[in-house]
Amino acid sequence: MRIQVITLFPEAFTPLVSLGVTGRGISSGIVELELLNPRDFAADRHRTVDDRPYGGGPGMVMAVEPLRSTIRAAKDRVVSVGVKQPRASLLSPQGRLLDQRAIRELAARKDLILVCGRYEGIDERLIQLEIDEEWSIGDYVLSGGELAAAVLIDAVVRLMPGVLGDEQSAQQDSFMDGLLDCQHYTRPEEVEGLVVPPVLLSGDHRAIERWRKQQSLGRTWLRRPELLDKLALDTESEALLAAFKDEHGK
């Protein structure tokens, strides 16, 4: 997968994606990351990328140019390798919520073009003319789109074959099946009176699988019950959840 990130601060963005799973995906060549700075596409000697907002108000607004030229350059690079309809994605609190389903959609693509806004925002005409979709990581405001882009990249790269040491790791993550993850334990068996559930020490893999599934269902019911409303549980899952509810007196 090729990922192009359009950012005014490439030097600050690089450390966000250079470590851990994302860094491994990039260093191994599974993911090709390229950073494009709109200042490099500016026509004036001051490399201007913003201007004062019409109507007054604080801050500055990113202008149509040179951001437009940067996006078009990124799209041209994608077209040159055979992608007919490249999409530019703006990181924005007004966009579609970036959940695990969306991450799977993005991970299925061959190319991503991520546009990071700054200052008070981007000229609306640029969004209308060049942006194909908007993504939000939550209902809050950041200083720029770089952190949101790094979050998106990390979540996508985890799903790339060969990035994780154990391919089952991603499949067991929270939200992969629409549920929260179950709890996990490692040595020692007891910490200040808190012990590892006996089933995890039993060696009975079927029992362990059922326990983990039940805990995942139960945690989702306790902490994010709205997620269950979106799922069609099979007979076994319904029975496991019912038993969990009985155990917890609800």
Would you kindly provide a written description of the structure presented here, covering whatever features stand out?
- This protein has 250 residues and is α/β, with parallel strands linked by helices.
- Helices cover 38% and strands 15% of the residues.
- It is built from ten helices and nine strands.
- It has helices spanning 10-13, 20-27, 64-79, 100-107, 124-130, 146-157, 168-171, 205-223, 225-228, 235-247, and strands at residues 2-6, 32-36, 50-51, 61-62, 88-97, 111-116, 133-136, 190-191, 194-195.
- Strands 2-1-6-5-7 form a five-stranded parallel β-sheet. It has a two-stranded antiparallel sheet with strand order 3-4.
- Strand 5, helix 4 (100-107) and strand 6 (111-116) form a beta-alpha-beta unit.
- Helix 3 packs parallel to helix 5, helix 4 (100-107) crosses helix 6 (146-157) and helix 8 packs across helix 10.
- The longest helix is centred in the last third of the chain and has 19 residues, at 205-223.
- It is elongated, with a radius of gyration of 23 Å.
- The mean pLDDT is 93.
Which helices and strands, and how do they pair?
Blueprint (H helix, E strand, L loop, with lengths): L1 E5 L3 H4 L6 H8 L4 E5 L13 E2 L9 E2 L1 H16 L8 E10 L2 H8 L3 E6 L7 H7 L2 E4 L9 H12 L10 H4 L18 E2 L2 E2 L9 H19 L1 H4 L6 H13 L3
Parallel strand pairs: 1-2, 1-6, 5-6, 5-7
Antiparallel strand pairs: 3-4, 8-9
Helix pairs in contact: 3-5, 4-6, 8-10
